[in-house]
Amino acid sequence: MGIAANELSQYVIRPTLVYLNRYCQSAEALLLGVAASQSALGAALHDRRGHGLYRITSQRHRVLWDDFLARDPDLASLVRGLASQHAFLGGPHLELTVNLRYATAVAWMLIEEQATPLPAANDLQGLARIWRQTFHPQGRLRDFTQAWHHCIEPAATVTV
Predict the structure, then answer these.
(1) Which of 45, 71, 79, 139 lies most in the core, judged by the most C-beta atoms within 10 Å?
(2) Are 42 and 2 in contact (CB under 8 A)?
(3) pTM, 2 dp
(4) Hey, which residues does 56 pair with through a beta bridge?
(5) Where in the sequence is the domain holding 101, given as residue range(s)?
(6) Alpha-carbon distance 39 to 136, whole Å?
Protein backbone atom coordinates (compact mmCIF):
# COMPACT_ATOMS: atom_id res chain seq x y z
CA MET A 1 0.00 0.00 0.00
CA GLY A 2 1.24 3.47 -0.86
CA ILE A 3 0.63 6.93 0.50
CA ALA A 4 -2.96 8.14 0.87
CA ALA A 5 -3.83 10.19 -2.21
CA ASN A 6 -5.36 13.08 -0.28
CA GLU A 7 -2.33 13.31 2.03
CA LEU A 8 0.11 13.13 -0.87
CA SER A 9 -1.73 16.03 -2.49
CA GLN A 10 -2.14 18.06 0.68
CA TYR A 11 1.32 17.62 2.21
CA VAL A 12 3.61 17.02 -0.76
CA ILE A 13 2.29 17.91 -4.22
CA ARG A 14 0.37 21.12 -3.50
CA PRO A 15 3.03 22.69 -1.23
CA THR A 16 5.75 21.82 -3.74
CA LEU A 17 3.87 23.38 -6.64
CA VAL A 18 3.12 26.47 -4.54
CA TYR A 19 6.80 26.70 -3.58
CA LEU A 20 7.75 26.56 -7.27
CA ASN A 21 5.03 29.11 -8.10
CA ARG A 22 3.47 26.54 -10.46
CA TYR A 23 0.31 25.59 -8.59
CA CYS A 24 -2.95 24.91 -10.40
CA GLN A 25 -5.49 22.12 -9.95
CA SER A 26 -4.49 20.52 -13.25
CA ALA A 27 -0.83 20.32 -12.23
CA GLU A 28 -1.78 18.81 -8.88
CA ALA A 29 -4.08 16.25 -10.51
CA LEU A 30 -1.47 15.35 -13.11
CA LEU A 31 1.28 14.73 -10.54
CA LEU A 32 -1.10 12.68 -8.42
CA GLY A 33 -2.04 10.61 -11.45
CA VAL A 34 1.61 10.15 -12.41
CA ALA A 35 2.43 8.91 -8.89
CA ALA A 36 -0.53 6.52 -9.07
CA SER A 37 0.48 5.23 -12.50
CA GLN A 38 4.19 4.96 -11.90
CA SER A 39 4.34 3.53 -8.36
CA ALA A 40 0.78 3.02 -7.05
CA LEU A 41 1.34 6.12 -4.87
CA GLY A 42 4.57 4.76 -3.48
CA ALA A 43 3.67 1.12 -2.95
CA ALA A 44 7.15 0.38 -4.30
CA LEU A 45 9.67 3.20 -4.43
CA HIS A 46 12.54 1.68 -6.38
CA ASP A 47 12.78 -0.72 -9.28
CA ARG A 48 14.53 -1.06 -12.63
CA ARG A 49 12.21 1.56 -14.18
CA GLY A 50 13.42 4.34 -11.91
CA HIS A 51 13.47 5.99 -8.53
CA GLY A 52 10.67 7.03 -6.21
CA LEU A 53 7.01 7.92 -6.58
CA TYR A 54 7.43 9.02 -10.18
CA ARG A 55 9.90 6.35 -11.38
CA ILE A 56 12.46 8.83 -12.67
CA THR A 57 15.61 7.21 -14.02
CA SER A 58 19.08 8.41 -13.06
CA GLN A 59 19.67 9.30 -16.71
CA ARG A 60 16.52 11.48 -16.99
CA HIS A 61 17.39 13.14 -13.71
CA ARG A 62 20.89 13.98 -14.94
CA VAL A 63 19.69 15.21 -18.34
CA LEU A 64 17.02 17.40 -16.71
CA TRP A 65 19.70 19.14 -14.64
CA ASP A 66 22.21 19.40 -17.49
CA ASP A 67 19.88 20.41 -20.33
CA PHE A 68 16.90 22.16 -18.73
CA LEU A 69 17.57 23.46 -15.23
CA ALA A 70 21.09 24.62 -16.06
CA ARG A 71 19.55 27.20 -18.41
CA ASP A 72 17.53 28.79 -15.59
CA PRO A 73 19.70 29.30 -12.48
CA ASP A 74 16.85 30.77 -10.41
CA LEU A 75 14.60 27.79 -11.09
CA ALA A 76 17.50 25.38 -10.54
CA SER A 77 18.16 27.03 -7.19
CA LEU A 78 14.51 26.61 -6.18
CA VAL A 79 14.54 22.91 -7.06
CA ARG A 80 17.92 22.36 -5.42
CA GLY A 81 16.56 24.07 -2.31
CA LEU A 82 14.23 21.12 -1.79
CA ALA A 83 17.07 18.59 -1.78
CA SER A 84 18.81 17.49 1.40
CA GLN A 85 21.95 19.51 1.99
CA HIS A 86 24.51 16.70 2.23
CA ALA A 87 22.64 13.69 0.86
CA PHE A 88 22.16 15.34 -2.54
CA LEU A 89 25.90 15.74 -3.05
CA GLY A 90 26.62 12.11 -2.18
CA GLY A 91 23.67 10.50 -3.94
CA PRO A 92 21.51 12.87 -5.95
CA HIS A 93 19.40 10.10 -7.47
CA LEU A 94 18.60 8.68 -4.02
CA GLU A 95 16.84 11.99 -3.29
CA LEU A 96 14.20 10.91 -5.85
CA THR A 97 13.35 7.98 -3.59
CA VAL A 98 13.62 9.42 -0.10
CA ASN A 99 12.68 13.09 -0.57
CA LEU A 100 9.08 13.36 -1.75
CA ARG A 101 9.06 17.13 -2.29
CA TYR A 102 12.29 17.05 -4.27
CA ALA A 103 11.00 14.15 -6.38
CA THR A 104 7.76 16.05 -6.98
CA ALA A 105 9.65 19.15 -8.10
CA VAL A 106 11.78 17.09 -10.49
CA ALA A 107 8.70 15.34 -11.86
CA TRP A 108 7.06 18.71 -12.46
CA MET A 109 10.19 20.00 -14.21
CA LEU A 110 10.08 16.99 -16.55
CA ILE A 111 6.49 17.92 -17.40
CA GLU A 112 7.30 21.60 -17.77
CA GLU A 113 10.22 20.78 -20.04
CA GLN A 114 7.72 19.29 -22.53
CA ALA A 115 5.86 22.64 -22.74
CA THR A 116 2.53 20.89 -23.29
CA PRO A 117 -0.58 22.86 -22.28
CA LEU A 118 -2.36 21.30 -19.32
CA PRO A 119 -5.88 19.97 -19.70
CA ALA A 120 -8.59 20.51 -17.10
CA ALA A 121 -7.98 18.74 -13.80
CA ASN A 122 -10.90 16.36 -14.46
CA ASP A 123 -9.82 15.48 -18.03
CA LEU A 124 -8.29 12.07 -17.30
CA GLN A 125 -7.57 11.33 -20.95
CA GLY A 126 -5.75 14.65 -21.33
CA LEU A 127 -3.75 14.04 -18.15
CA ALA A 128 -2.99 10.51 -19.37
CA ARG A 129 -1.60 11.84 -22.64
CA ILE A 130 0.88 14.05 -20.78
CA TRP A 131 1.83 11.14 -18.49
CA ARG A 132 2.50 8.94 -21.49
CA GLN A 133 4.44 11.65 -23.33
CA THR A 134 6.59 12.54 -20.33
CA PHE A 135 6.97 9.40 -18.24
CA HIS A 136 5.92 6.27 -20.07
CA PRO A 137 5.91 6.49 -23.88
CA GLN A 138 5.01 2.79 -24.18
CA GLY A 139 2.16 3.18 -21.71
CA ARG A 140 -1.49 2.97 -22.61
CA LEU A 141 -3.86 5.76 -21.67
CA ARG A 142 -6.03 3.22 -19.90
CA ASP A 143 -3.08 2.34 -17.61
CA PHE A 144 -3.23 5.90 -16.29
CA THR A 145 -7.01 5.97 -15.94
CA GLN A 146 -7.08 2.54 -14.26
CA ALA A 147 -4.42 3.64 -11.77
CA TRP A 148 -6.47 6.79 -11.13
CA HIS A 149 -9.63 4.79 -10.48
CA HIS A 150 -7.81 2.31 -8.28
CA CYS A 151 -5.54 4.63 -6.24
CA ILE A 152 -7.16 8.06 -6.24
CA GLU A 153 -10.93 7.79 -6.60
CA PRO A 154 -11.43 5.61 -3.51
CA ALA A 155 -9.80 8.32 -1.38
CA ALA A 156 -12.01 10.98 -2.93
CA THR A 157 -15.15 9.12 -1.89
CA VAL A 158 -14.15 8.81 1.77
CA THR A 159 -15.87 11.41 3.92
CA VAL A 160 -14.51 12.63 7.23
Answers:
(1) 79
(2) yes
(3) 0.92
(4) 51
(5) 5-157
(6) 12
